Amino acid sequence: MRTIVPFGVAEPKTRLESVLGPEERRTFALAMLRDILDAVTTAGGDPAILADAPIETEAVGVDVPVIVDDAPLTAAISGHVTEALTETGGVAVVMADLAIATPASIDRLFAASADVDLAIAPGIGGGTNALVVQDPTFTFDYHGASIRDHLAAAREAGLSVEEVDSFRLAVDVDEPIDFAEVLLHGQGRAATYLRELGFEIETQDGRVSVRRTTNGT
Amino acid sequence: MRTIVPFGVAEPKTRLESVLGPEERRTFALAMLRDILDAVTTAGGDPAILADAPIETEAVGVDVPVIVDDAPLTAAISGHVTEALTETGGVAVVMADLAIATPASIDRLFAASADVDLAIAPGIGGGTNALVVQDPTFTFDYHGASIRDHLAAAREAGLSVEEVDSFRLAVDVDEPIDFAEVLLHGQGRAATYLRELGFEIETQDGRVSVRRTTNGT
Description:
Two copies of one chain form a homodimer. Chain A has about 220 residues and is of the alpha/beta class. Chain A has helices at about 20-40, 55-60, 75-85, 105-110, 145-155, 165-170, 180-185, 190-195, and strands spanning about 1-5, 45-50, 65-70, 90-95, 120, 130-135, 160-165, 200-205, 205-210. In chain A, a hairpin with a 2-residue loop joins β8 (about 200-205) and β9 (about 205-210). The longest helix of chain A is centred in the first third of the chain and has 21 residues, at about 20-40.
């Protein structure tokens, strides 16, 4: 299935700037991107990167089509999904920062889409982390509590919907506290990179946090 | 399946004290408890409350066995799971604050346990929100990053494990920010109560938070 993976090239992961330098943020964002591209491919998907600025395939480390579009996120996704839908029966959109997603969780997303117009996986905090749309009348809106808005848009358009109940698809990495999930559950390059940088789980008074023990390698 | 639901009667949900008064916290905790008992029952489970102090069945609002044990959480759970395992083939432990859990998500937990010694659902932040154990040699430890410790304990004991990948089982409600998930995805008494108290989703700069618009009813 054609799977669009939006990726911010210019200023990746600014909300991590308190714990990662600019080059580290870029490397970490690329590691997460590579992980999700691998998971999509292993699950039988056909990924394409939707980038807001040109990016070299060598930087990504895997040969995947890159669509460059500097429009705002919602407009860029909407345009390219609509375009792809004229060619194929269903198009997926999967965020690039789902650092603990596995092929099995992506496979559940694809499988859920078989009999419905919209399969959708919520993110923690109201986002929409992954979806498959079969119907070009669906209206995208990635701003704010997008899971609520996407479900309302589907309802208004009379589309059939299946929610994909997945922890691994619900976790996206925006802030340092999200590193806890990556360190506990991640199996790919992003988790390895954080460990290389010296991040580890810390438990105090029964609560879990993350600390950086070194300045990395 | 026998399903033990631990519930703190004495000081429920202290980390919500910045936004809820003592009586509100008690009512909210009971609403979540009632929701999870209903979900377990609908999924075919046979719930029992494991309480750290006596609690009236009338307060809970449903006729479910109550086991009172003021031992620390891990010891209390371990003792009563071991006891129940002598009578039956598998015992579940499901936390009382999984406010967006559904019968379908509990059913997935039960189904996952069919062929393994341990079925386990991680919580956000390293907790263990739900599990089913079939083997009395499993060692409980609910302190700190318990999902990591439980997986390690199962590995050391040579137990077969299936992780249950569920967003609805991963969300527990400890802090005010967790209300966002309840307001967005909750379908039961806990969600209704928060709405009655005047809590609603707020989106600012594309990020989601929660505000209380009134002092409730």
